[in-house]
Amino acid sequence: MIHEQFPVVYSTLASSALVSQVLPQYEIASVTRCQFWHRGLSDVYLVETERHPYILRVSHHHWRSKSQINFELELLDFLHQRQLSVAYPLRTNEGLLSVDIPAPEGWRYAALFPYAPGTVAVGDLNVTQSHLLGTTVAQIHQAAQAFRCESHRPPLTLEYLLDDSFAAIAPFLTHRPPDLKFLHEAIGQIKSQLYDFPTEPPYWGICWGDPHSGNAHFTHTGELTLFDFDQCGYGWRIFDIAKFWQVSLATGLSRKVREAFLNGYQTLAPLTDTELAALQPLTQTAHIWHWAINLHHARVYDYSRLDDSYFNYRLQQLKRLKSYDWQLF
Question: What's the pLDDT tens digit per position in 187-222?
């Protein structure tokens, strides 16, 4: 018989405990429902009260440190104070942006957000919505140039995006030497194309890190709210364009819609020819980084996905992103 508490990698926090121990720390109306809603890079709970709905997001112990989470929350609070359209964290009765939770596996951190009005674009973005999304990303980049924060988040450098990602992916390809070699050479080529890329404003600043249609709500009157800044950090502004390209190409978003995003961005923040020339290698970078994040998540929650087809699909995508006609699919 085991008498000590058994070690835990991941726990699902009880909704009833969140209602009784976490939500009373906020000045909100009486809670009528708290439902586990989604497991992504954080656990998301839908909170309904007598007046308004909210989203309670609880970090995973193995994914983000408190300092990294504070960076994101302070950024969102900063952007909200400047009237930008982002889902922002509410402060507790003590003025804090998060609540520490001593889960069985270690400390986790909860943050409460007003529910973003509207819904994800039905059938994905149209040209008008994509243009507005691009304009809003440019507004965020411009406003965030004044953001200062003592909390730390890894900057989106090539070492972080590519070298760390390769270290995560490579062990799964050791039995496939040609594929491992292809990935290594692809990363080397990207780094050679971007080795002297400028790292000062306006080229470099705060990036959202994950701009795509699934992280934005639109109302029926066309108003927009952005959310999910888990992947934010200091990086190249063109990388946010590349990340949008990467997701859009993977999901089959039309070229017209992609270009509307870019046009919307450039109405406020024109990009240089050097930045636009970096779009293809940075889209490849975004793909590799997303692959590593997805792999990290699957190792903890769904290892059964990591079969040959999983890696075949991602290698095939990378090869297409490296091709001459990469924007045609």
Answer: 999 999 999 999 999 999 999 999 999 999 999 999
Alpha helices in 62-176 (DSSP H): 66-81, 127-143, 158, 164-169
Whether the Cβ atoms of residue 246 and residue 213 lie closer than 8 Å to each other: no
Cα 321 from Cα 71, distance rounded (Å) = 32
Peptide bond preceding 198: is omega within 30 degrees of 0, i.e. cis? no
Residues 6+ apart with CB under 8 A from 100: 66, 107, 108, 109
Q: In this predicted structure, what is the pLDDT of residue 124?
A: 87
Residues with Cβ within 8 Å of 3's Cβ and at least 6 positions away in sequence, in order, are none
pLDDT of residue 328: 67
Instruction: State pLDDT tens for residues 240-259.
Output: 999 999 999 999 999 999 99
Q: How far apart are the C-alpha atoms of 84 and 200, rounded to whole Å?
A: 23
Three-state secondary structure call for residue 94: coil
What lies within 8 Å, CB to CB, of 311 at 6+ separation is: 172, 173, 176, 179
Q: Which two three-digit tokens encode residue 128? A: 């008008």
Res. 300: pLDDT tops 80: yes
Question: Are residues 131 and 222 in contact, defined by beta-carbon separation less than 8 angstroms?
Answer: no
Describe the strand order of the beta sheet including 53-59 as a list of residue ranges: 31-39, 42-49, 53-59, 106-114, 99-103
Label residues 270-297 b or e (16+ Cβ within 10 Å = b).
Answer: ebeeebeebbbbbbbbbbbbbbbbebbb
Residues ≥6 apart with Cβ < 8 Å to 37 = 44, 45, 46, 55
pLDDT above 90 (res 327): no
**How far out from the chain centre does Cα 269 lie?**
22
